[in-house]
Known about the structure:
Elements: E1 2-9, H1 15-21, H2 28-36, E2 41-49, E3 52-59, H3 62-77, H4 81-84, E4 89-92, H5 94-104, H6 116-131, H7 136-155, H8 165-177, E5 185-188, H9 192-203, E6 209-213, H10 216-226, E7 229-232, H11 236-241, E8 245-248, H12 259-263, E9 268-272, E10 289-293, H13 294-300, H14 307-358, H15 364-393, H16 399-409
Parallel strand pairs: 5-6, 5-8, 6-7, 8-9, 9-10
Antiparallel strand pairs: 1-3, 1-4, 2-3
Helix pairs in contact: 2-6, 5-7, 5-14, 6-7, 7-14, 8-13, 14-15, 14-16
Pfam families: GlutR_dimer (PF00745), GlutR_N (PF05201), Shikimate_DH (PF01488)
Enzyme class: oxidoreductase
EC number: 1.2.1.70
Amino acid sequence: MNLLSVGASYRTADIGTLERLTIADGEVQQLLHKLVSQPYVGEAVVLSTCNRVEIFAAVTGFHGGLGDVCNVLSEVSGIPATDLAGHLYVHYDEAAVLHSFRVSAGLDSMVVGESQILGQLRDAYHAATEADSAGRLLHELMQQTLRVGKRAHSETGIDKAGQSVVTAALEVASAQLGDLDGKSALVIGAGAMGALSVATLTRAGVGPVRITNRSAERADRLAEAYGAVAVPFDELDAALREADLVISATASSEPVLTRSRLEQAGSLVVLDLAVPRDVARDATDVDGVTIIDIDSVAASRQAMPAAADTAAVEQIVTAEVEHFLGWLRGADIAPTVAALRTRAEDVMTAELRKLWSRRADFTEEQRADVSRTLHRVVQQLLHSPTVRVRQLAAEPGGDQYAAMLRELFDLDVPHATQADAVPEIGGNR
Length: 429
């Protein structure tokens, strides 16, 4: 099995494309099952955020796996595969590990160093575990990815410049509203992004803060946790008229803020952080209403961590990638070593059968003594070379040792060779 990551983000796709690609929470399990049912895909994890949709997969071949993943993404988004290709980035094996670790460290985020991605990765891994779509390879990758992200945030100052997309969006909003201290805010949606919005608004001194959500219970819990006020969803229009600033981050498949609704709201700034967008396409030019969406945040982001912090995180990532690749190379040779030991046991068993057929006079005790002695001899002969070959396999270029063992002893090891070759570009786009 080989690692493959295929995705689209704010770097490669506009908000309209990301809207079509985004995977609702209730659809993740179905997508995971669809992915692992493909011919070349053995394991899968789906990461879907407001500015990123990505598939991490364990595949039996680059071209076949890439084709399977792209076809599934095309099917669920309704975007023709030929059109979709121009918006996707692709990473394979070592590059996939590097990309995964950089994502968890916040180096690939719209706001460099933001830590929200760690929770999103954790949720993606949890969903794959529940769907039983993550096997040994992706379990190890996801666990190490989360660990690397935690290291980056705890051992460096990478996240000092901005905590999240919400922070960046508020910086854009302050250009319209001035000092946000004391401004009235309304948060629409009580999911992960809504909760982050309430927390960020509270820290920034914005207030009063109101929360509305289709599920009143979730809004009540969130309001209680932050000293905010929960508003029934059917009173949304009145709440809009009382707000200076609105953050909308629902999981609705249809626009929540229609043109007629915003025309009655009066003057306000709306941060639309939802994917798909919560603001209707025909409502972006309503008089007195300023709309700030993900694209606007991406275009205006300025807060960057210090170069020293970024360099420190890059060093952590580089070292951790090499450590993971060492584990991966060691794991790749394990089936070959196991096959060698099995071959030795088979030869020993066959020779013992021949001996017993010739020496029927051996007692059971004598047979047991001979068997134990031969077993110890075989184990001792194999011990040093198998330990050493594991060590050599963990080094760069170590895959040649596994191939050599297979050739020397004519071992049949399933999945020992790739189904197809990796492109010269290394599988990166």
